[in-house]
Amino acid sequence: MNQRLQHRQICFGCSASIWCLALLALLSFNSGKPIMALSLPTQNAGGHASGASQVSLGQTSIEVIAILGQPNQVVDLGARVIYVYKGRKIVFTDGRVTDLGIGGPISQPPQKSADSLKDAFSQDTVLNGQLWSTDTELLRSVARTASSPSSAWIEPRLSFTSSGMRMSGITGTYQFTGIQSNQSFRAPFTLSATAEGTISNGNPFVLFLVSGDLHQLFSIRGTLNASTGYQGVWENVTIDGHTKSDFKIYETPTTGIWYNIALTIDGNGNGSVTFSTATGKQLASSKIAGLGAGPFYVILAQREGAPYSVGPNEAIWSQVQLSRPTGSIASVAPREQQSGEETATETGPSCLGSGDPRVRNEIHGTIQVLGGSGAFADISSSKKLLTVHPGSQLVGSVHLHVVNGGKYDAVAPLIATVSWGDPSHAFWTVASWVRTGEQDLDAQVRITVPSTPGTYHILFAMQLEMNGSNVASGTSWALHHDTWRDGNEIALFSLAQVLQAQHEGCTTDRWLTTRGYELIAVPADAITLQVL
User: Fold this and answer.
1) Whole-model pTM?
2) Which domains does the chain have, with CATH numbers?
3) N or C: which terminus of the chain has fewer CB atoms within 10 Å of its end residue's CB?
């Protein structure tokens, strides 16, 4: 029997509408689709109930009907069903509200924040509905507010290949499209996304962080066509609808090149953005100040503004991942700041040359991956990326050029570690004492790749400590014991730290010393593993 008729027959004999609703809720839950419009008595049929402000994302059709009454019209599109009310449309996807529509008071999207987001689009055949939504009210709101005049919302055209998710659909002026994460994320976190613009007449790829109430908005947008007059990679921070900053961080992006965008936002709403090639060559970096801690939704978008170069736009997104630190550095109290002393962040000062006076260590060395053998034969100083299969074993050696700028009698262990598993068991010592000056070393590697697709790293680091455990844990030897799970382990380097190490041969990290947590320079480099 047709399920819609089943619903009606069950309700026909109900003496109390509450029992009808309960039975229908069970059927709706089992079927995964909203119930159709029913002839139940209600004081609010076709209009707005006094409790309309309670309608929110994720609710079932039963909950919506209880608040708004019976819809004036139901549009059944299969997995997607639209309830039409006066001045409002409520969209359900697989039985749950995914778009609150317009008109009348509605609540903001739920602000429960998640801890991680990871999607390797090259492994998808369709958009993962558990992670992403299209045509949401937040997307439409961003379209209206992220440009002047407002942009029209265009449904994205999405297709999936072994390269990733191909997004298109923007062909005219003041148009906007994209996908939105279903969950929001509160800082501190690190976010990375990799994209290639294949056709550019506007912004073929834009990465947004947006709070549900639009109070906080951050974006990185790429204009890859010189004829538009706006070629470049642009960073924007908008607070309460007012542009706080909007400037170019990179001059000459082009189509046909994979780019990686890496964001690090701390618990105070400040951070940094790094723009690099997918092979690890850093092209630009910038600080982010005063954005706020969210929670933020992630939006992968495409847009076109003023009519300088009108035509199609297309980009391929290969991956996006967001993670919160397992031991948040923001939650660790540093030593008390002295009067007149400046603060520094993990991605602020450069660790090359004589360093920054705020970096409190005596070594300013570097590590550079030069090449390798075995499983690492394709690695070079300009290519530090390997694509591997889940669960595969990598056996070989990595050739390193190491510069130790410490004193002649200082012990400097060199370690290798991986970014998965327990950091206290994931490292091994490559050299117990790297002598001062320059030298080449071979790091022997024998590891098993994670079985879960994603982006991982093999990291190499050195420091003036007594043993490899001191280095791997980020703990001074003078404390006489290593502290783990405090968020500063080498294995837990943020993506921004990894990219800086790959580009400069070193990065900065908060080290646990006898004076508390201090920012120090760490000679380091890394190999990126793309597990597909």
Assistant:
1) 0.47
2) 3-99 (3.30.1450), 113-323 (2.60.120.200), 330-336+344-531 (no CATH)
3) N
